[in-house]
Amino acid sequence: MEKRESLWAGGPSYWYDDALFPPGTDSFLLAAFPPLRPGDRVCDLGAGTGLLGLLLFAREPSIRLSNVEILPEALALAERTCQENGVAADQYLADLRSLPAALGAGGFDLVISNPPYFAPSAGRPAKGAARRTARSETSCTIGDVCAAARRLLRWGGRFCLVYRPERLCDLLEAMRRDGLEPKRLRLVCHGPASSPSLVLAEGRRGGKPGLRLEPPLVLHGPDGSDTPELRRIYFRDLP
User: Fold this and answer.
1) Taking the C-alpha atoms of 28, 21, 144 and 154 in order, what is their torsion angle to the nearest 10 degrees?
2) pTM for the whole thing?
3) What is the DSSP letter of 103?
């Protein structure tokens, strides 16, 4: 079922379909992770219904956004979200393993992605083809995502993504193999004493070796309440 929600009361709104890609915390966390500069040219690989691009736009309205998505019904919702919020975005219905020539090569300042986390044989299969595509590497691998990012990024451009900590070695290996030097990592934990559940990573095309481990992003305090940082990420303390 298609639904519409707002980032905050009176703020930008987004469309999604809970049978496709329901909004998740990982998208909000990833959108808050990369530094943004005015006029940055940004590509979202595997954009789904467009929430991630809208979140980036909420932080920096001058970005120039391109969405790449393989499912037409998801891309249609991303386009609706962009149109309703005045987001200047190009929409590409495409497989990221075969990017459209119109995207060009080496022209993006930032490539961002919330890719499939799991190998096809790992865990319980998700219900529905769309959710399987989003969850498991049935349509692309992490290597495919890194290769696409490398093609799109200018020299010195940044690649940011969210991934699972148990596959961190696979991620770092794939990034380096495609010339995206890992520069920044931040682990995400549900609570102060919890093991990491996600990892946020940034690589730089052609970057020099040197990896910075940032303080963990803790989502909930000892009493279970949202931390101030999570409240900021979700726009909950706006006046």
Assistant:
1) -40
2) 0.92
3) G
